Amino acid sequence: MIVRTLESAEKTARRIISPDGNWESTRLLLKDDAMGFSFHITTIYRGAEFQMHYQHHVEAVYCIAGEGEVETVEDGKVYPVAPGTLYNLNKNDKHILRAFEELKLACVFNPPLNGTEVHNAEGAYELDAETISE
Predict the structure, then answer these.
(1) Please, what CATH class does the domain formed by 6-110 belong to?
(2) Residues with Cβ < 8 Å from 78, sequence gap 6 or more?
(3) Separation CA 23–CA 110 (nearest Å)
(4) DSSP 131
(5) What is the pLDDT of residues 18-61, one digit of tens each?
(6) Which of 44, 43, 52 is nearest to 89 (CA)?
(7) Under DSSP, is residue 68 helix (H, G, I), strand (E, B) or coil?
(8) Are strands 58-65 and 68-72 parallel, antiparallel or unpaired?
(9) E strand or H helix that includes residue 63
(10) Distance between CA atoms of 79 and 65, rounded to whole angstroms?
(11) What is the pTM of this model?
(12) Do the beta carbons of residue 127 and residue 76 sit within 8 Å?
């Protein structure tokens, strides 16, 4: 059994802060936990807007707190994001995320992240990032 608290994980290398300062993510489950997915609590800071395109991963995102929107680039559709909203990037959707206020999100990635990934220039996570442990 794996038991971790968000508070304790935030004090380890599992807490990743984006180079641009738009978000931070505490990775509670990673590839080396052998669950088949990774689970993160991610904070998107108020006013952040950025494009992502997870070419190697699918992602499910559940909004815990805050308000914003997600736009699919291919068709320009905009979806509000608020507490209780679940959106799924099941087709490697290129998307733009906007935080009108600080967003707190629970995110699941498949395949799982290793731990140290941050978005590359295309807004994707690479598959070969370094693995971290507690």
Answers:
(1) mainly beta
(2) 69, 70, 71
(3) 20
(4) B
(5) 888 899 999 999 999 999 999 999 999 999 998 888 788 899 99
(6) 52
(7) strand
(8) unpaired
(9) strand 58-65
(10) 16
(11) 0.87
(12) no
